[in-house]
Amino acid sequence: MAIPETQFRSLIQSHQRMVFSLALRLLGDYETAEEVAQDVFLELYRSGERFESEDHIRFWLRRTAKHRAIDALRRRSKRPESLADEWMEQDHSPHFDPATHVSTEARLESLLRTLPEGLRAAILLRYQEDMLPEEIAAVLGQSAASIKSQLHRGLTLLRRKAAVTMKEYFREPV
Amino acid sequence: MNPYDTNPKLAEPLSPELSEFEHQLRNGLRPVDPPAGFADRVLARARQSEVLDNPPKQGAAESSRPRRFAFPGLRSRLWAGSAIAAMLLAGVVTEENHRIGQRHKAEEAQRQFETALQVTDRTLEHVREQLYRAGVPLEQ
């Protein structure tokens, strides 16, 4: 192996949640998300790139995960919204609400998947990965100003959708 | 925590509703674990691709030998160099063949010219002999 097996396993274990969650939320499909996440780690394994730090690896993984997930979306050429219903039927979150049979988190995720790819990626990196707009701009190859604008637009759009579809949780903005 | 609170220069301030929603969103988008055995499956694929990319060589001594092409790009550069050399060689051989062909043609033309001269000489000699026998004076 290009990277010693123990080191590679430790790398996977440190970053698998991040890579898998990004792929899952961009794709909305559990199986494809695992496939994409595996591909990302294999790409890292084969890349032969010299990583200077843990931050460098994280940056590389986030960027590659985003690119590969978008590639998979385009290959599938299926609107992610169509998988939202399927997702709603499953319980992937520990916060399961027996009253509605669908957790708030799962419903927020399904709403997220109705956003355009660009907005969705920016929102995910901001709120799942807790990245600053400047860091997101570096990963997505855009300007920080554009990312800030996308974040604001995405958040407003999601908030409006949540106010309509999740009235029990969110008040409609005035 | 509102991320923009820590650094107000990051973006325009959010309304209270959006700040609250942001908080909900952050809670909702916590990273999730991949299916159990994920790391093992990646490692298995890596091992498999390793075997496919580099099939095991015969004999342990062979595998312990240092790689011939240790520098990235060296192999492709060698291939490119060989291809250029082969093309140049083919060009030189073609040019030489052409030159030999031309020389053969010139020699053949020379031979035909000499044969024609000999035939003409013989014919003239024969005519001269006939005239001499007929008593026609010939100027020298």
Mean pLDDT of chain A equals: 82
Task: Give the overall silhouette of chain A.
Answer: globular
Report the sheet with the most strands of chain A, covering strand number, pairing sense and barrel closure. Answer: none
Distance between the termini of chain A: 58 Å
What is the residue-mean pLDDT of chain B, rounded to a whole number? Answer: 78
Shape of chain B, please? rod-shaped
* Helix and strand run of chain B: HHHHH
> What is the multimeric organization of the chains shown?
heterodimer
Largest interface: A-B, 50 and 33 residues
Overall structural class of chain A, as computed from helix and strand content, comes to mainly alpha
Radius of gyration of chain B: 46 Å
First-residue to last-residue Cα separation of chain B:
130 Å
User: What Rg of chain A, in angstroms, do the CA atoms define?
Assistant: 17 Å
For this structure, the CATH topology of one domain in chain A is Rna Polymerase Sigma Factor, Chain: A
Query: Segments of chain B where pLDDT lies below 50 for 5+ residues?
Result: 1-10, 59-69
**What fraction strand of chain B?**
under 5%
CATH architecture of one domain in chain A: Orthogonal Bundle
Helix run count of chain B: 5
Strand content of chain A: under 5%
Q: How many strand segments of chain B?
A: 0
CATH superfamily of one domain in chain A: RNA polymerase sigma factor, region 2, helix turn helix motif
